[in-house]
């Protein structure tokens, strides 16, 4: 005779309720606005759409926006990792203040950030006055766009890599050193595989944030058509001209390209995580490397 055991009900709502709330929330906040963007763009015929999204001025804005966002994300991937490494591995005076300064781009209004960067890198600014005699002009040039996008993207990399480094077991590095691995080999074969998925996540977040940045860029870019004008500014300009369909057409292009880039990065991240989980412990892999075994047997 079987005994029927009833599971004690949880104090939290069940799967059906939480799923319904999740779907409703995502629909209101994300799906419905995006669907409205596509529906508004659909009012254009094909020739009007191509004319709106492929004019020389628009193509120049694409080039600047995506290249600057990609460049800023790459810079932050390198230096954001270094900042996270220093904050986790070293103790030094005013460490808490430095840790708090990393989050400053999160807290600053974008307009304040743009004005501050323009004031610092202008020809008579604190940094610009030393760079201008060398022929380096940052403010009101495409280089200023890169600086602004790098500034706002740094916290995304630091805050995604920092927890992984804090949880990383340093015994793995010690084991690699005992096997004879050099510092560079230990970093490449032990530390980097563990940190790379988080680093890719930070890179993707910084890149996506940079694509949609507006406030901090317009103050330092100069906004010269065909030279230092970003796509977000063109969208705002079309909205001010009551060209809503043209603005949503540009938004759709940015949305599709951003989605494809994020899909690629997330797929690469999933592949690396799966490969790392299959490879097993890093020190074991090091034992087959000539540098870890003292050369050929």
In brief:
With 297 residues, this protein is an all-alpha fold.
Characterize the structure shown.
The protein has a domain of 206 residues: MetI-like fold, CATH 1.10.3720. The protein is globular. The chain has 297 residues and is mainly α. The N and C termini lie far apart (66 Å). α1 crosses α13, α3 packs parallel to α8 and α8 packs across α10. The chain has 15 helices and no strands. The C terminus is likely disordered.
The fourth-level CATH homologous superfamily of the domain at 46-108 and 143-285 is: MetI-like
The CATH topology of the domain at 46-108 and 143-285:
MetI-like fold
Distance between the termini: 66 Å
**Percent strand:** under 5%
Seen as an oligomer or otherwise, the chain set is: single chain
Give me the number of helical elements: 15
Main β-sheet description = none
